[in-house]
Amino acid sequence: MSEQAIEKQEYNITVYTENQIGLLNRIAMIFSRRKMNILSLNTSPSEVEGIHRFNIVVHETQEVVSKIARQIEKQIEVLKVYFNTNDDVIWQEMALYKVPTQVIAEKAKVERLLRENGARVVAIRSDYTVFETTGHREETDNLIKVLQPYGLIEFVRSARVAIIKDSDGFNRKLREFERMEPGHEVVENEFLNSRDKVFSM
Amino acid sequence: MLMQEKQAPALPETDTMISGSQALLHALVAEGTDTIFGYPGGAIMPIYDALYDFEGDLKHVLVRHEQGGIHAGQGYARSSGKVGVVFATSGPGATNLVTGLADAQIDSTPLVCITGQVFAHLLGTDAFQEADVIGITTPVTKWNYQITDATEIPEVLAKAFHIARSGRPGPVLIDITKNAQLQKFAFKGYTPCEHIRSYRPKPIVRKEYIKQAAELINKAKKPFVLWGQGVMLGSAEQEFKAFLEKTGIPAAWTIMGAGALPSDHPQNVGMLGMHGNYGPNVMTNECDVLIAIGMRFDDRVTGRLDKYAKQAQVIHLDIDPAEIDKNVKTTVPVWGDCKETLPLLTQLVETKKHTDWLAKFREFEQKEIDAVIREELFPTTEEMTMGEVIQQLNEITNGEAIIVTDVGQHQMVACRYAKLNHTRSNITSGGLGTMGFALPAAIGAKFGALDRTVVAVIGDGGVQMTIQELGTIMQSGIDVKILILNNQFLGMVRQWQELFHERRYSFVDITSPDYVTVAKGYGIPGRSVNKREELRAALEQMLSNPGSFLLEVMVTKENNVFPMVPQGCSVSEIRLK
């Protein structure tokens, strides 16, 4: 077994699904049944109309993630599951920070810090100002630390969204799914299509 | 009660206004349903009202508890190969299905369960008999769906049947709110579902894997086949037999697979797993190529996984891609329906005999006969053993009966020793181990195979869990032979307490009612025997009785099922005593 298979790391699981009530529950239960923590979960439309896309982040070994992926793909309304390490995806998370307006107005340093961290003003009120940053975890985390001494009132971060570097989208695949006899590609998980190593006899 | 056989309504013409309930029943008829196991209640009353007119096509069996209903549905599905259909009302009716759903899910049994639900406008208000049935049943169903609008009924039912019976079968639950049952709509006809774009019931067969598998098999010196229920679910018994007979490979079964190959087939070397036969367990760790067909390497089959068949190259034939590599790492995965893959494989394999290798299994069998089997089947003790009852039963039925078993020692004994000539003749709760399964499942099994003799073999623990279904037997007049093996203990737990808990018999001493009197109360004749001299005649009386019959056999109290692979041990550490 390769080192990657037994070492835990972050995996980005991308799930293409039909739009179905209760499916989120069905997918979430696959993790909770195995006492696995979902670090981040985002549902959104995909590039194909009517097809939804889940982005799920877990910290697990490849072996466990590949089994989970097959359990998810087995669900009736799930079309396709991919899983990728952070290196294989472009990913972003968005964060909002609420800071007292007075502090910003009085302390020029704060304004500089915000600019250095790529923060953007979303709303200004007389009592507070809301900033937004988008980036990787370390970046959004860093701004919390920066703002903490200046009376950070509220902080929230979104789930992760990720684009798979090697993917050419789902449009062509969906057409295969719609056929009565789908082609090879849609039938099996990607990772099993490249299982040459297993055949070392 | 005299009731005139009513002609069920014909399928209405397009745009006829019918109720959701009527649409549902037309869907069931169109899908070939002939029997429904159910129990009415407030939220499913419109469906029952419509059912009153469908009696000619849809036979409704009134069970005594919804759990009995779903187990009967399972028994029906397992004996007939068709989809079992179950009705229950909302709230408690639906929650009573959960055990059966979990059982059907883990044992891949095709079911369509229809539950009533409160009016849509009451959902989420804690209405009377409201429960979140979709939420509760999600992890124990292959698919579930709530209908709140009658127009959805034909399409959803078509999907439900397609999903339940295709690919790896499983239970589907459809929850229908009362307003949708009552709602009239313009019926657009019924079209069975053949394709759902997000659902691939069968992986495409990959020729390269078949080729690699055949190469491995042809090179193998000590190949060994393990088969499971998949052979029966795929109706591939003939294909399986042809493959075995060409390759000459010895084959052993999981309890879910029992009967797919007749018990007395020369290559059938017995049962796998914790209480399986000696040879198959030991040889699992001796073989060079392990060919698993339609089985899922349950922990009761594999024992300790890190010492399981490590020396072997593993070929795994399965229709469910999620089973490949789940427990045992596969060398060659043969995706697909074994009905398709087995003939392809048979074409490529060489005709062989493996006589010496097969003889080794027989050597182990002899050891097992000497150490365990002879004394179990032909005991020298005064008290009767479970094994001898099964042996006597075999001699009378000659392996022609359907044997339905509950869970525990009697289940292991019955599965080990029952002679099975035909497929779909061993019905048991394999994966979930549901006590109380056998009595209702036997009722369903008989409805699914009216021309067969059905014998429910049940322990004194399990029978008391669903004994109310004697009422179902009484009312439906179905012919089920009930064989209670009474050892006055929760025997399997007691065995473990004896072996692993210093004989601390904690709450396993269970008393029984007078079963013969109980049966009599239900109008079912019965007999209880505690002497060997009476056993044969009693079994003959049970089997020749024109209707149902209950036979209680008092067996020795503290007998253990052996061989045994203790939990946490490797299959090669199987104990003969």
List keywords for this structure.
heterodimer; A: 201 residues; alpha+beta; Alpha-Beta Plaits; 2 domains; 5-stranded antiparallel sheet; 4-stranded antiparallel sheet; 9 helices; 9 strands; 32% strand; elongated; disordered C terminus; B: 577 residues; alpha/beta; Rossmann fold; 6-stranded parallel sheet; 22 helices; globular
Question: What report would you give on this structure?
Answer:
The complex is a heterodimer of chains A (201) and B (577). Chain A is α+β, with helices and mostly antiparallel strands. Chain A has 9 helices and 9 strands. In chain A, strands 5, 6, 7, 8 and 9 form a 5-stranded antiparallel β-sheet that branches. A 4-stranded antiparallel β-sheet of chain A has the order 2-3-1-4, with helices on one face. Helices cover 34% and strands 32% of the residues of chain A. Chain B is an alpha/beta fold. Chain B folds into 3 domains: 170 residues, Rossmann fold (3-Layer(aba) Sandwich); 154 residues, TPP-binding domain (Rossmann fold); 177 residues, Rossmann fold, CATH 3.40.50.970. Chain B is 37% helix and 16% strand. In chain B, helix 22 links the parallel strand 19 and strand 20. In chain B, helix 3 crosses helix 18, helix 11 runs parallel beside helix 14 and helix 16 runs parallel beside helix 17. The relative contact order of chain B is 0.11. The model of chain B has no long low-confidence stretch (mean pLDDT 96). At the A-B interface, helix 2, helix 3, helix 7 and helix 8 of A face strand 6 and strand 14 of B.
